[in-house]
Amino acid sequence: MKRQFMAALIVTIFSIPLFAQTERVKFPGMAQAGTITRDARGIAHVFALNERDLLFLQGFVHAQDRFFQMD
Fold first, then answer.
1. CA dihedral in degrees (13, 17, 19, 22; nearest 10)?
2. DSSP for 3-15?
3. H-only helix segments in 1-71
4. What is the pLDDT of residue 28?
5. According to the model, what pLDDT value does residue 50 have?
């Protein structure tokens, strides 16, 4: 019984979305705002109007997804 409860708890915790589904972001140093969209599986899709901003947002998404490794 205890194992089933723990398994259900773990599945519930990991199925909670950590980030917004669609997020419009603009950080200092970016030329224009970009959009980060996450699909139902949590996979990020990054949209920007120039390459520099796109690469910056890619790094931002990578840091969001790997924060637990830096912690």
1. 180
2. HHHHHHHHHHHHH
3. 2-15, 51-65, 67-70
4. 92
5. 95
